[in-house]
């Protein structure tokens, strides 16, 4: 041994750094006078917060996106949203493939970690399908939005439609319509339907997309959904339960609340309740003021935000599969039948259960620390602070009107929370575990403990 240690950087660190570098570059651009609507330099803390919320596809904003930024600033924000939604590594790989260059093994491993996949096979084709599929869906969404925004805003409605479509699909929740999100469209069925569709499609995850297409192309007898993979079955069933179950609870709790949906017609109430349920899946758009929600609806929203969307998609949160695996594992303990977790006739690997526990604990830890720190620097109510930190951790973007009033310390706390929530709990655990340990060939004696 020569006594020298060679510094190496893991794929996980590269993923963390790619987001960090993108955020810092975006912050520099947004701090320039050309990015501001008034032509004056934006305070760097505000520019950093905006770059982070765009890249981490969160949606919390300290300055009104529609009026605070110039066209150049809006373009920078939109690029950051697209990079954040797809992932910086994915976009770079797509550019490489577009230039007809082959991906090396290093970049393939990097993509595997970025998408949290278990194989290197067919990654190039997977990236191409992800980028093309994203552009197609966003394009269709933009055309659908134009049916409303062009008659209302004229030629500017085209730009608004494109921006909103990308933001909705990437689950960013940032818009350039006005300062009140989508409040003015709470009764508009087109805006509600298109936005919900884009949010759900982005949140389902690309693996489910290709699995559904595969099943629909197969000409076999029997119910098509039965031929889906276990992952897709869990994602689709959980998504349906959370959306419609959440919508039902929202409607029940807010039905007579005049500050949210109480003054709407029956159809409009159902529409608004479903939108609230969908947007909490880390989208961040709002058609009703979050600060006017009653406590029961607010706590339901907190749960839905914490769970978030599904793996290998544009949504945040601990993810639907994580939540279901934890719930199923808990049921096994309660029923005291055996130690095996089974779903849809399949056994869940112990490694998946352990990973789900790690993701949930890490996310909860980020949220808890952020809540405590934010409580120190602001005198807002506990519910408003918790709503803010859960929204930031799960990269949702919904707020009970606390974000605009944050001081610089509060902005920095939420900025860090959004970043940590976006890069993922598992990536953080791997990144923090810098020391490589040799596998032990000796097992320690088993100790007895009491749990519960």
Can you describe what's shown?
This protein has 452 residues and is mostly helical. The protein has one domain (11-429). The chain has 18 helices and 2 strands. It has helices spanning 11-30, 44-55, 65-68, 71-86, 88-98, 105-115, 123-153, 156-169, 189-204, 206-217, 230-254, 266-279, 295-307, 320-335, 350-377, 382-393, 408-423, 425-432; strands at 341-343, 346-348. Strands 1-2 form a two-stranded antiparallel ribbon. Helix 1 crosses helix 6, helix 8 runs parallel beside helix 9 and helix 11 (230-254) crosses helix 12.
The secondary structure category is: mainly alpha
Which consecutive residue ranges, at least 5 long each, have pLDDT under 50? 1-7
Number of structural domains: 1
> Could you tell me the strand content as a percent range?
under 5%
Average pLDDT for all residues = 85
The gyration radius over C-alpha positions equals 22 Å
User: What spatial order of strands do you see in the largest sheet?
Assistant: 1-2
Number of DSSP strand runs: 2
Largest sheet: 2 strands, antiparallel
What is the global morphology?
A: globular
Instruction: Give the count of helical stretches.
Output: 18
- Order of secondary-structure elements: HHHHHHHHHHHHHHEEHHHH
Distance between the termini: 49 Å
Helix-residue proportion: 55-70%
What's the short story on this structure?
This protein is mostly helical. It has one domain.
Topology:
Blueprint: H1 11-30, H2 44-55, H3 65-68, H4 71-86, H5 88-98, H6 105-115, H7 123-153, H8 156-169, H9 189-204, H10 206-217, H11 230-254, H12 266-279, H13 295-307, H14 320-335, E1 341-343, E2 346-348, H15 350-377, H16 382-393, H17 408-423, H18 425-432
Antiparallel strand pairs: 1-2
């Amino acid at each position: 041994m020569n006594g020298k240690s060679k510094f190496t950087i893991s794929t996980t660190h590269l993923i963390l750094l790619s987001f960090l570098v993108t955020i810092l570059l975006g912050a520099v651009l947004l701090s320039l006078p050309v990015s501001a609507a008034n032509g004056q330099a934006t305070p760097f803390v505000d520019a950093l917060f905006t770059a982070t919320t765009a890249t981490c596809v969160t949606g919390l904003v300290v300055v009104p996106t529609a009026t605070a930024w110039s066209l150049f600033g809006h373009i920078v924000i939109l690029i950051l949203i697209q990079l954040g939604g797809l992932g910086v590594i994915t976009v770079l790989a797509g550019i490489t493939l577009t230039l007809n260059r082959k991906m090396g093994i290093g970049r393939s491993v990097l993509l595997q970690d970025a998408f949290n996949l278990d194989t290197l096979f067919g990654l190039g084709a997977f990236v191409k399908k992800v980028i093309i599929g994203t552009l197609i869906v966003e394009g269709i969404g933009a055309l659908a939005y134009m049916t409303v925004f062009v008659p209302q805003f004229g030629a500017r409605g085209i730009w608004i439609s494109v921006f909103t479509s990308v933001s909705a699909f990437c689950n960013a929740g940032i818009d350039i319509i006005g300062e009140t999100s989508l409040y003015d469209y709470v009764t508009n069925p087109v805006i509600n339907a298109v936005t919900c569709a884009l949010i759900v499609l982005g949140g389902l995850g690309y693996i489910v997309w290709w699995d559904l297409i595969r099943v629909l192309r197969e000409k076999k007898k029997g119910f098509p959904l039965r031929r889906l993979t276990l992952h897709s079955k869990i994602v689709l069933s959980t998504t349906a339960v959370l959306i419609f179950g959440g919508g039902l609870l929202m409607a029940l709790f807010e039905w007579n609340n005049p500050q949210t949906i109480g003054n709407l017609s029956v159809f409009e109430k159902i529409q608004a309740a479903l939108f609230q349920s969908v947007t909490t899946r880390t989208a961040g758009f709002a058609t009703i003021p979050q600060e006017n929600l009653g406590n029961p609806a607010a706590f339901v929203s907190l749960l839905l935000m914490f769970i978030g969307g599904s793996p290998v998609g544009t949504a945040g949160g601990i993810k639907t599969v994580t939540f279901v695996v934890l719930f199923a594992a808990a049921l096994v303990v309660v029923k005291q039948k055996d130690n095996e977790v089974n779903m849809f006739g399949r056994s869940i690997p112990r490694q998946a259960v352990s990973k789900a526990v790690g993701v949930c604990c890490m996310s909860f830890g980020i949220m808890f620390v952020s809540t405590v720190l934010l409580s120190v620097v602001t005198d807002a109510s506990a519910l408003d602070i918790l709503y803010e930190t859960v929204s930031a951790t799960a990269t949702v973007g919904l707020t009970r009107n606390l974000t605009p009033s944050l001081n610089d310390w509060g902005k920095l706390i939420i900025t860090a929370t959004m970043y940590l929530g976006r890069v993922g709990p598992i990536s953080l655990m791997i990144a923090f575990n810098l020391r490589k340990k040799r596998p032990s060939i000796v097992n320690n004696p088993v100790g007895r403990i009491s749990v519960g």
